[in-house]
């Protein structure tokens, strides 16, 4: 028993010893591990702590917005009209306020960029005035005083300049020169001097100048003496011209405008590969300068459809940026659409809005350069905008309107040298001041083609103008862009939507349909030209008459004959009936409104003007100021009244201040709207006496009242204005885009379509996000029974006896079989003189004749005659019909080894 207990006791002691040994080994291992950890922690915090702290201080983590490419613009067949391509941009970034330290690097970078043909693309907020030579602020042109002041304050705030201490442009420039390390030298150049640590050393101008004296010791000037630069303070220096200083100011100002983004800003865009290689090769000596990839906008077809497409440019309006663009995600140095579709479809095309931006989370060094990417979210590109225009049609239309303008100009220059023309107009030429009112001949033109086919009705197939401009030049800037902007013909204007002119005889279809639908004319009723139209005046010289000198040729005309012969007397009569028999109802104006001539079309292009059709409100509206009137007539009347009243008062030795006269004149004009004309004189007397203090004797004189009555009568709508409106004159002014809506309404269904130029919006993945069609403005149901008579009259215009017959002689098609049309010539008064050479020319057409597929409008301002405007439309119709008649021929290939015939 004892031996068993002993053995059990021994075995237990052996187990305990093994456990104790294992515990000791485990404990030693734990202590060892903690020792290693403690040693590592000691090294990390004590031995290497300063090194890691310095490294951490030199790195920061940032989330960088990543933007895709702007969407494309294409024609209806997906021909690319605008796209974005990748380009190299030279950038600058400064995170701290070492203002002068990067100046040397920037000058070096600018030199590299310019040596390879590049240029600095940012604009300085300070420039020297070409007129005065003084420094001025440069915050853009054409902006309000409020916007100017805001941008000025942004300049001071963003650049940390005291607006009270440096309130003038000169003071601001001097301050920035010193900030960026420049000394102004006596000869107008600038010195950048650096010490051995790379910090700038700035001197006073006189410190580095020698006085120039005359023989008598008088100082006559100063010259630069660089030998005065102290070598103990300056390690290196360079002398630069003023342009370089302005560039440095521009780059730094752009950096400050975008400082909130904490990102490098481009200052030279789309640079060459050689530029990139050299700048990257010098990256160690230029840590604040870098190269990034960006987008550049490219227009593959140059000037094709320029005013439709538009162009992109930098954000100019600071107010708009802070109120609309910045909240949407734009940076101040982003590009936006400046004109055309680029502008109107900005929200669809842009990749700058927050919802389409991606993000990179990166580590960057103090110079803003990325050292490591931590994460990446891809951006989304902008959408593609597909237009309704056909690039082939557009190119043809631009070619034809160019040829038509040049053809018309040649005819005008030939005509003005002919003896019979000079004899006819010699008296008017003698009284015209041609220095103040130079002769205006054809220099511009518009040709619009609108689809009338059922499935595409209202879509614009071509919207052409001459002259055009190269969109790439506008994007690149420089002298070519400046020439475009300064061209007197207004190349940046879209003539189709931003010009208005009297329509002349192309308005007569409105008058005819207004008379027919309101019971003042029947389709078979005839009217004969009676010569002078005497309904509204007894003065023979003031009675209007038809354009023909042979009124007997316009005898017994029905509505079709009236249109074919474009008889003014016929349409005076119809307009007069509408006015006399329906007083105050404005039936002619209302029918023009139904045909789309009194409102904007709403086409997706910026800057469309509203057409004006004559009535009292458009002639003079007493509820608004003179500056808000639709035409200039009230302003001219007010000026005439002011001169007349001033001259009359002067005969009594009295003068009035301008504001007092203005108030009196506005009351007189308003009175004329609310008082019968027979009572104008009696109603005007108390106004003169109250507002101007005239005596009773003064206000009783005909010398005052007669001319006053005549001037006020100019702004009072009446029968004489109504009949002129009936033939497309008076104050009626139409845009070509409104005219194409109007002429297009004479389709088989008499539907008035709002012109549409955007077919669809397509995502980068090819999904159609928005499909667009023309909206229906109106339907002329009451005109349905009269449409054949209108079209019959328009067919006569282009047949062998019509007003446009001469333009169709020898044409490959017989005009009256394939089309209908109407010419229009509106008289133009310049410098109180009318010369026929300066008349506006219009031509409208529909083709094919029986079931029109397209409507056309050709317009040449100062184009001499509507008949001379036919050529562009005729050429396009020929092109269109030729395209329609092309037949795809099936080619049958021989089988086997047989030879083709």
Describe this structure in words.
With 901 residues, the protein is of the alpha+beta class. Helices cover 40% and strands 17% of the residues. The chain is built from 32 helices and 28 strands. Helix 17 (508-517) packs across helix 19 (568-581), helix 17 (508-517) packs across helix 20 and helix 23 packs antiparallel against helix 24. The chain is globular, with a radius of gyration of 39 Å.
End-to-end gap: 127 Å
- Weakly predicted, low-confidence segments: 51-57
* SS field, number of helical segments: 32
Number of strands: 28
Alpha-carbon Rg, integer: 39 Å
- Biggest sheet details: 7 strands, mixed
Query: Average pLDDT across residues?
Result: 90
The best one-word shape is globular
Topology:
Elements: H1 2-47, H2 49-57, E1 60-66, E2 73-74, E3 80-92, H3 103-115, E4 126-128, E5 135-137, H4 145-158, H5 169-179, E6 182-184, E7 190-194, E8 209-213, E9 219-224, E10 236-240, H6 242-257, E11 265-271, H7 273-281, E12 289-298, H8 306-309, E13 312-314, H9 318-328, E14 335-337, H10 340-344, H11 346-349, E15 358-364, E16 370-377, E17 384-387, H12 391-415, H13 419-431, E18 445-451, E19 460-466, H14 471-476, H15 479-486, H16 495-498, H17 508-517, H18 559-564, H19 568-581, H20 587-594, H21 616-619, H22 633-650, H23 658-674, H24 680-692, H25 696-699, H26 702-714, H27 719-726, H28 736-744, E20 751-753, E21 758-762, E22 768-771, E23 776-779, H29 787-798, H30 805-808, H31 815-818, E24 820-826, E25 829-830, E26 833-834, E27 840-847, E28 854-860, H32 870-885
Parallel strand pairs: 2-17
Antiparallel strand pairs: 1-15, 2-3, 3-11, 3-12, 4-5, 6-7, 7-10, 8-9, 13-14, 15-16, 17-21, 18-19, 18-28, 20-23, 21-22, 24-27, 25-26, 27-28
